[in-house]
């Protein structure tokens, strides 16, 4: 009640107007346009943004100025080679050439341009020398003698030598075959003019020395015919072709392998004089030891074989190949046996011939 009274007092309630009248009034009264607000003329002028004002030098393009170096810095630096002091012209001694130890080489290794046996090959060869000189000849002699008794054949010196050299050739080729093949291949690079005049010099040493040694033997013993020479002369008369093959092919192959390849060349690396002495004495002993067993006076004929051994060693030392001494050995034996065959055909004798072999 109080609220209604207050409303009555403060405001008069609005009278409700019909909806039709309201719409009619709305249609009849057009809306009034709101006049645009009038701004001052300068307000419509576009506002241009003035560029900032920089000092004039700021707009000048900045050119790159390279740094200024001192003038000498731009001068090209020419390469100055180092100045060497001239060396004294006094000749420098050549460094000593070391001799390689043959113990470090294989069995057919090379010493410079020369095949040479190594320590193993030398030891095997040294062990075979007693077999070659003493054991095998005596063993074959007894063996063939008893075989002759059993099978009714006569043992001759020719048969004994054929069997002996056949066995030795098999031993040499089986033990030293690689070394001999390497020496043969080395001839391609070693062949030179020395192979023409060295054998000639070796033959001069051999024949000249044999002549002097023969004269010495004639003075001492009254003869220059050793028992070995007499046996060779007899065998040449009985079987000339067989003796020619044995003395020209088998003997040089076997003897040069032992006396030059096994003894002389390794010793020459240590001492040349020792090599010549040892190989010459053993080579001479080979030809007289059997006769010396029955007659020690035959040892005097060792001096007849020394010149031949020295000549063969000289050929091997200069040509540095085992086939060099084999060649000279074959020539010496071929000349000796050839002359003996010729004299036998003529029924003549020449005591000086047999001592060459």
Model description:
The chain has 357 residues and is mainly alpha-helical. The protein has a domain at 106-354. Helices cover 64% and strands 1% of the residues. The protein contains twelve helices and two strands. The protein has helices at 2-10, 19-28, 56-59, 119-151, 157-190, 194-221, 227-238, 240-268, 272-294, 302-319, 322-345, 351-354, and strands spanning 110-111, 114-115. It has a two-stranded antiparallel sheet. α8 packs across α10 (302-319). The longest helix has 34 residues, at 157-190. Mean pLDDT is 78; it is low at 1-20, 22-27, 98-110 and 352-357.
Oligomer: single chain
Percent range of helical residues: 55-70%
β-sheet strand percentage: under 5%
What coarse outline follows from CA principal-axis ratios?
elongated
- Number of helical elements: 12
Biggest sheet layout: 2 strands, antiparallel
Mean pLDDT: 78
Based on secondary structure, the structural category is mainly alpha
Strand order of the largest sheet: 1-2
The count of strands amounts to: 2
Task: Give the radius of gyration.
Answer: 61 Å
Quote the distance from N terminus to C terminus. Answer: 181 Å
What order do the helices and strands follow? HHHEEHHHHHHHHH
Give the low-confidence spans.
1-20, 22-27, 98-110, 352-357
